[in-house]
Design goal:
Function: Specifically methylates the N4 position of cytidine in position 1402 (C1402) of 16S rRNA.
Structural class: alpha/beta
InterPro entries: RsmH, SAM-dep_MeTrfase_MraW_recog, SAM-dependent_MTases_sf
GO molecular function: rRNA (cytosine-N4-)-methyltransferase activity
CATH architecture of the largest domain: 3-Layer(aba) Sandwich
Number of strands: 7
Strand order of the largest sheet: 3-2-1-4-5-7-6
Number of helices: 13
Radius of gyration: 21 Å
CATH class of the largest domain: Alpha Beta
Family: Belongs to the methyltransferase superfamily. RsmH family.
Pfam family, one: Methyltransf_5
Distance between the termini: 40 Å
Length: about 300
């Protein structure tokens, strides 16, 4: 069963207007969407996006017969195009949970997790061409190093890439368990952390690269100024530092009145503050939630409100 994270905190900080229009950028298992929907009146509206075909099928079943809910298969990077298609100019609020759903993690056919051995796929949208198999078995060593460093912040990127290249010469690496084993052997034993598989960062890196996850988040953040109405709120839940840094930096930028260099005697940039920060520091799960759902441990929530 999928367990959405920080659900109570999301509902509280989204400050839902029962008559408003809200966008769930990452529908997943529908946990957040169901809670938000319950806060809406009959003239409120919820648009649910997900790029994963399986998730969209599941969401359409959950919300079958709900007249004021639209479920759309789309990358949230294209949220503006979806709204244009639905003839919606402005929305009251928007939220996104950037983590993988339990459905994706537990389905070995999707190839996201080393906990269940499956084909190296890792695509969120199965119509995309590049799979993890393609990256692991065909990309040059230097490219692999760059991927592991940039998207996984993996300190042993060189050793891991070297091991992958040597292994694939003998036999193609086809499954998640094979890749996890190669990575585990490449990371020195003294750096194997208790409770964390040595392959965690590398799997994250390959997944982010294949799905262009950071580019999608950046695109979404660049569009919220235009699509969210005054008084509307945005809520973002991140699971690693790369995501959280993007969200933090962009929300801080929107919350500034001036971005001129400090040595300028007066403002010349004419920048206007468009959002105010509701959370100066990220909201994190309570210990009780972490006990119920250990995967929530790394979640961080940031919230901002449109002011113009």
């Amino acid at each position: 069963m999928h367990k959405p994270v920080l659900t109570e905190e999301l509902i509280e900080n989204l400050a839902i207007n029962p008559h408003g229009i809200y966008v769930d950028c990452t529908g997943g298992g529908g946990g957040h969407a169901l809670r938000v929907y319950k806060k809406l009146s009959s003239d409120g509206r919820l648009i649910i996006l997900d790029r994963d075909e399986d998730a969209v099928k599941r969401l359409k079943e959950i919300f079958d017969g709900y007249n004021n809910v639209n479920v759309v298969q789309s990358n949230f990077a294209d949220v503006d195009s979806v709204l244009k298609e639905l003839k919606i100019a402005r929305i009251t609020g928007l939220y996104a949970d950037f983590g993988l759903s339990n459905y994706q993690l537990m389905d070995e056919k999707r190839g996201f997790s080393f906990r269940k051995s499956g084909f190296l796929d890792m695509r969120m949208d199965s119509s995309d061409e590049i799979t993890a198999y393609e990256v692991v078995n065909n990309y040059p060593k230097e490219t692999l190093i760059n991927i592991l460093k940039k998207y996984g912040e993996e300190p042993f990127a060189g050793r891991i890439a070297d091991s992958i290249v040597k292994k694939r010469v003998l036999k193609k690496i086809e499954s998640t368990s094979e890749l996890a084993s190669v990575i585990s052997e490449a990371v020195p034993k003294k750096f194997h952390k208790h409770g964390q598989n040595p392959a965690t960062k590398s799997f994250q890196a390959i997944r982010i690269f294949i799905n262009k996850e950071l580019e999608a988040i950046e695109s979404l953040l660049n569009k919220i100024e235009k699509i969210v109405e005054k008084g509307g709120r945005v809520v973002f839940i991140s699971f690693h530092s790369l995501e959280d840094r993007l969200v933090k930096d962009m929300l801080n930028f929107y919350a500034k009145d001036c971005i001129c260099p400090p040595e300028f005697p007066e403002c010349r940039c004419d920048k206007k503050k468009t959002f105010r920060l509701i959370t100066k520091k990220p909201i994190t799960p309570k210990e009780s939630e972490i006990k119920r759902n250990p995967l929530s441990r790394s979640a961080k929530m940031r919230v901002a409100e449109k002011v113009i």
